Amino acid sequence: MTYSPTRLLGEKRFSSEDTIRFAALSGDRNPMHVDPVFARRTQFGRQVVHGMHTLLWGLDQFFAGVGAPRPTSLKVRFAKPAFIGDTVQLRVADSVENERRLEITASDVALVTLSLVFGGKSAVFGGSSGVPDLQISDGHAPSQSPRELGLADINGMVGSISLAVGTVEAGGSFPAATRALGGGVVSALVATSRVVGMECPGMHSIFAGLSVDFVEPSRPTASLRWRVTRVDTRIRRVDLEISGGGIVGRLDTFLRMPPTRQLAMSEICKAVDSDEFAGECALIIGGSRGLGEVTAKIIAAGGGVPVITYAVGREEAVELAAEISGAGRKCHIMPYDVRSSAAQQLAALPAEPTAFYYFATCSIFRRKLAFYEPALMREFTAFFVDGFYDLCSELHARRKGKLAGFYPSTVAIDSQPRELTEYCLAKLAGEALCASLRSCLPDLDIVVARLPRIQTDQTATVVPVRSEPPLDIMLPIVRKVRAAATAPQKQEPVSASG
After folding, report:
1. Distance of alpha carbon 183 from the chain centroid
2. What CATH superfamily classification does 8-255 receive?
3. pLDDT in tens, 437-456
4. 185 and 74 Cβ atoms separated by less than 8 Å
């Protein structure tokens, strides 16, 4: 076997079209892969490339570039996700005797680590002296949409996925891997994506890794069979045993926390006097979910009229508006992107706001290589400084009279975690901008608060951690903004000669 330990074996940029094709091939149509609006409400914040797609691309590149025999086993760890738009590279990590260790990286950060073992004789799957078959007869029928499961639902689950259609299609998508491993094996690997993303854990799954042996079936198998072998409720881990199509082994998965559901209008109305925000028109930038959603409900519950903006989540904004209207309150919705001109977009305002709230954000937790990355800093600055200044300038120019607003900062500034360097710097710059605006524009008052960890989509983790209830944090802030908006307007300083 010829093998260069420094050789770059392949490179690929994953597009949305690639992901759609793999979703059709595998049957794994989990929305975290194919729906950008849903994906932004996961802990990843954007669309994730199927882990098995990344792996199979890597295997295909390896077998296309290296004259390797058929391996006997494969171990994989999905360390970090690849996102749509990422360019990934397949690189050699190490070579030890009959083991080949590879990495799939993006910006020199390891996303997938895999180990192929060569040599030895493959066991006979289903034979009298070989690997025992996984007998399943009464499992769940394959689902056409991802199953929404809780930990209590998963224990003891079993099922099977047909490989009859996938064998030919998988061979066309990954030809070198198919020649080396066989069509049944490649189809079985493809099918594991559907098992994890659609069946179990399903909708809120994380595919963490797999360990499989490549075996010789004693008879043709037309399905991949699976069953849950362990559920660890402490860390939300779910282990599955699989067999079929020439593989036998284990899948390592986790069940993510589902997207955060904010309090219903009926609950918020109990905490707010029905007229305490009467007469207020509040523009809420990024108001369709998270803290923006809670703020819109608070103002509406208190008799004010929120103008809820969205950048991509129109359906979420429509649902929120329907909930507010269903409670007998008023609101408006409109699109707004902080990266575009505020003047042009605010021309569509249904009414002039007396207050504004700025919850615009991009994905905060990023894969980083260096301590400080200028490109990431520019992106955060565009959202948290430039976009905010453009909004303030235009609202101040339009408003006749007092205007109050809210700028959310973060307690992360106090601890300065390494992975959030650019985010904290951008928020510090935003705080400084607010101070300058207050001093230069006496009829503009901006409330700034360094918020703790709050129960939102961006703070979701696999293992639950302490987060503050959004209503407890936002209600005092909304009242403070209301007080600032209704306080007597400051007078311009009068010169001695005047």
Report:
1. 32
2. Hotdog Thioesterase (3.10.129.10)
3. 999 988 999 999 999 987 66
4. no
